[in-house]
Design a protein that fits this description.
Layout (H helix, E strand, L loop, with lengths): L2 H6 L3 H10 L7 H6 L1 H6 L2 H4 L3 H24 L3 H14 L6 H30 L10 H44 L5 H59 L9 H30 L6 H24 E8 L8 E3 L4 E7 L11 E6 L12 E5 L2 E3 L10 E12 L23 E9 L2 E8 L4 E3 L5 H14 L15 E2 H16 L5 H12 L9 E2 L1 H5 L7 H21 L9 H8 L6 E6 L7 E8 L5 E5 L5 H4 L4 H7 L1 E3 L5 E2 L4 E2 L3 E2 H5 L20 E2 L2 E3 L3 H4 L4 H4 L16 E4 L2 E4 L28 E2 L31 E5 L2
Parallel strand pairs: 2-10, 13-18, 16-21
Antiparallel strand pairs: 1-3, 3-7, 4-6, 4-8, 5-7, 8-9, 11-12, 13-14, 14-15, 15-25, 16-17, 18-19, 20-24, 22-23
Helix pairs in contact: 2-8, 6-7, 6-8, 9-10, 9-11, 10-11, 10-12, 11-12, 14-17
Keywords: Activator, Coiled coil, Cytoplasm, DNA-binding, Nucleus, Phosphoprotein, SH2 domain, Transcription, Transcription regulation
Main location: cytoplasm
GO molecular function, one term: DNA-binding transcription factor activity
Length: about 800
């Protein structure tokens, strides 16, 4: 199939790209369409280098245009006749340089191939069931049709203005001729001439009225499209950007909006030029009750208003402020650099590097007691340009800005008694520029979403909570008083936001079962949670310092840092209550286990498994939670792999056999294991030790009396870390205390002091995975290492959840 025919059959989005490609005079689409077979058969690459060959093709092109013109004359296609004649005249400028024409046509053909290739790639992606970044909605398709209709109307109006000028020139010529001949012609001839001139004036007047009516219709179309762009598409993009800032997988690409805004702006400036042309024509020929004199000022004012509305809405913040090492966007710290990017959606290449953008803070700060004020430091003025954008947009990319608190003239003098915490204070950064083109000028301003400004890294967790809450609920992106009267979140909103946190951090969100456990934790057991609401205080203030957000964020940070692969592969059930855990495991075979997050230890994860008692009843056991202290020493999958119970016969046994529901442990976790066994073990070369958590089962009953709630299967989780007997090494008949190689623990500043520095575990032993490998020969490389055998075991007490009836 010919290339042009393939292009015409593409989906509307790609045909739109084709329209934009040919929205220029270098190669009119009419010429490309009617001469498509001939154009595609020629060797334009050769012609671009060979002047003689290019001249031959140039002459043939003109002959083909003559043929098409004759055809349209026969078909009485007046508009096409005119267009083809004009195209031929335009091509005459290549008579001295036909190679330039060949180069131009070659460029267009290459761009067509790029459009085809992108369309074919998108089709392949769809066949592979890969979700596309964005799908056209019916409203967007309707907007595309309206824009295509607008471009067609403007193109027809351009032809109408040309015809009007020709008609006026005809009248002017005959009128001037009649004036010259007035003295020599008889009265009868003079009357005939006056009558003919009157007919021409009437025709010209009707043509002017028709032109003005057409321009009004075009402006009605533009008004309708601007309403859709500004009040719907742009608002929806702004809401998507808000959600994307807090982890939502929403598409925030501005390329499509830029095409739409630019298309409308180009059409408006064309209408501006049409009105200017009408003024010029009126200056040459006018008469009593001339409609152009009456209507043109009103039309000009309307064009100005539409242009001003469109351009003011087209200046946006493409990338919200963020610090390189921040927890998320919109949390800034004083004296720490941050970046932000502004973008103009109306793209005129002639404005590249000519529009200067200036950055400022809080034009009108709210009158709140203690409200701080800040100065922006760094490179505060940049030009909008296309070089700093990966997609050719007009952007000003500020990468080295900092904030400094004002020492005077700030808060403390507010008239309001409202008092906000530092992390509830919201601030806005503004961007100002001036758009000037073709005599039209307008000031533009864009603003960021509200940012939270902190002075210490320990405030990041609380600041991020404010950013989450604002962008989850606020429909007003400039509402800096949001936390003066903070609204509550519905459970569907809240649960979705929590899922986004995991999705953005680990590429896997929360499923309905996990969200139900969280809802149960917040509201208790209910048949349906949709009508439940979460107040701001319950999210971040109740049970201080261990608030709900601190608990949830502690889990999130642990998963992101230590457990991301396991979580992404669905191996961690995570959010499940102890009661639910019991009901799931008691129905399974011995050795079935699951992994869940601790409800009482911040940033803790534990596992429970089912045993069968001597009476044949299921018994669920749970280990104390592992935190970053443990996971920083040994990967969690290695803990699961090597966890052992020391039975009465002193034969270690791993009770973890099947990951819930019935996946063999090594099949589930095998790909994560960091070493092989036997001769392939890296411990042969590097005499390494690792922690293995072992429990003495024969001490469980004596050391872990079962409270009544545990007897009911609820399973308590102690808060004081690992416990058990002192760890020792036996060497040459003597016992030596063993100090495990644990790193000193620095509290996580993101936890706001909620995690206490635990006492050094006394029950951790250094235990080798393959004790038989450690003989005297292996120690020859390092004579400083003693020859020892490991006979002691570190004790980690499982906790019984009780027997089941």
């Amino acid at each position: 199939m010919a290339q042009w025919d393939r292009l015409r059959q593409l989906p509307i989005a790609y045909r739109q790209q084709l329209h934009e490609l040919y929205d220029r005079d270098a190669l009119p689409m009419d010429v490309r369409h009617y001469l498509a077979p001939w154009i595609e058969k020629q060797e334009w690459q050769r012609a671009a280098r060979d002047h003689a060959f290019a001249m031959v093709l140039f002459q043939v092109l003109l002959e083909n245009l003559d043929i098409q013109h004759s055809r349209f004359v026969q078909e009485e296609s007046f508009l096409l006749q005119h267009n083809i004649r004009r195209y031929k005249q335009n091509f005459q400028r290549y008579v001295d340089d036909p190679c330039a024409l060949a180069t131009t046509i070659l460029w267009f053909l290459e761009k067509e191939k790029e459009i085809l290739e992108s369309a074919e790639l998108a089709e392949k992606v769809q066949l592979l069931q890969v979700e596309p970044e964005a799908m056209e909605t019916s409203s967007q398709q309707d907007l595309e049709r309206k824009l295509a209709g607008l471009r067609n109307e403007v193109q027809c109006m351009e032809h109408t203005i040309i015809c009007l000028e020709e008609q006026q020139d005809e009248f002017d010529f005959k009128f001037q001729t009649q004036k010259l001949e007035a003295a020599v012609v008889d009265e009868a001839r003079k009357k005939e001439q006056i009558k003919a001139l009157q007919l021409l004036v009437n025709k010209l007047n009707n043509c002017r009225k028709s032109t003005l009516s057409g321009l009004n219709d075009i402006l009605d179309r533009i008004q309708d499209i601007i309403d859709v762009l500004v009040k719907k598409e742009l608002v929806e993009w702004q809401r998507r950007q808000q959600k994307a800032c807090i982890g939502a997988p929403d598409n925030v690409c501005l390329d499509q909006l830029e095409k739409w805004f630019s298309c409308v702006a180009v059409c408006l400036f064309q209408v501006w030029e049409f009105l200017t042309k009408l003024e010029e024509l009126v200056g040459k020929v006018s008469y009593e009750n001339d409609p152009v004199k009456v209507q043109n000022p009103t039309l000009q004012k309307r064009v100005d208003t539409l242009l001003r509305d469109l351009l003011k809405s087209s200046f946006v913040v493409e990338t919200q402020p963020s610090m390189p090492q921040g927890k998320g966007s919109l949390v800034l710290r004083t004296n720490v650099q941050f970046s932000v990017k502004a973008r103009l959606l109306v793209k005129f290449p002639e404005l590249n590097h000519s529009m200067k953008v200036d950055v400022s803070m809080d034009k009108e700060a709210p009158q709140i007691k203690g409200y701080r004020r800040f100065n922006v430091l760094g490179t505060k003025i940049k030009a909008l340009n296309m070089a700093e954008s990966t997609n050719g947009g007009m952007v000003a990319d500020f990468r080295h800005l900092t904030l400094k608190e004002q020492k005077s003239g700030g808060g403390g003098k507010g008239v309001s008694d409202i008092s906000l915490s530092v992390t509830e204070e919201l601030h806005i950064i503004y961007f100002n520029t001036v758009f000037e083109l073709k005599g039209f000028s307008v000031e533009l301003q864009a603003s960021t979403l509200p940012v939270v400004i902190i002075s210490n890294s320990s405030q990041q967790q609380s600041a991020w909570a404010s950013v989450l809450w604002f962008n989850m609920l606020s429909q007003d992106p400039k509402d800096v008083m949001f936390f003066a009267n903070t609204p509550a979140a519905t459970w569907p909103q809240f649960g979705e936001m929590l899922s986004w946190q995991f999705l953005s951090a680990t590429k896997r969100g929360l499923d309905d079962t996990q969200l139900e456990m969280i809802a149960n934790k917040l509201f208790g057991k209910k048949p349906n949670y949709d009508s439940c609401t979460v107040p701001w205080s319950k999210f971040t203030k109740e049970n201080t310092p261990d608030t709900f957000w601190v608990w949830f964020d502690g889990i999130l940070m642990m998963v992101k840092t230590y457990l991301e692969d396991l979580w992404r592969d669905g191996l961690i059930m995570g959010f499940v209550t102890k009661g639910k855990e019991k009901s799931l495991l008691k129905k399974k075979k011995r050795g079935t286990f699951l992994l869940r997050f601790s409800e009482s230890v911040i940033g803790g994860i534990t596992f429970s498994w089912v045993e069968i008692t001597v009476t044949g009843e299921p018994d669920v056991k749970t280990v104390q939670p592992f935190t970053k202290v443990d996971l920083s020493q040994i990967p969690f999958h290695e803990i699961i792999r090597n966890y052992q119970i020391l039975e009465a016969e002193n034969v270690p046994e791993n009770p973890l056999l099947y990951l819930y529901p019935d996946t063999p442990k090594d099949k589930a976790f095998g790909k994560y294991y960091t070493e092989k066994s036997g001769e392939d073990s890296p411990y042969i070369k590097y005499i390494k030790t690792k922690l293995v958590f072992v429990s003495k089962e024969n001490t469980l009953e004596a050391r872990s009396p079962m409270p009544s709630d545990m007897a009911q299967g609820e399973g308590l989780e102690p808060m004081n870390g690992l416990c058990g007997e002192a760890a020792v090494l036996e060497q040459d008949g003597d016992l030596y205390p063993l100090t495990p190689p644990l790193e000193s623990y620095d509290p996580d500043p993101m936890m706001n002091g909620s995690v206490e520095d635990p006492e050094p575990p006394q029950d951790l032993l250094m235990y080798l995975n393959n004790p038989n490998l450690f003989d005297n020969d292996l120690l020859q490389d390092d004579q400083s290492l003693p020859d020892f055998s490991l006979q002691g075991f570190n004790c980690l007490l499982p906790q019984s959840c009780g027997s089941f009836p």
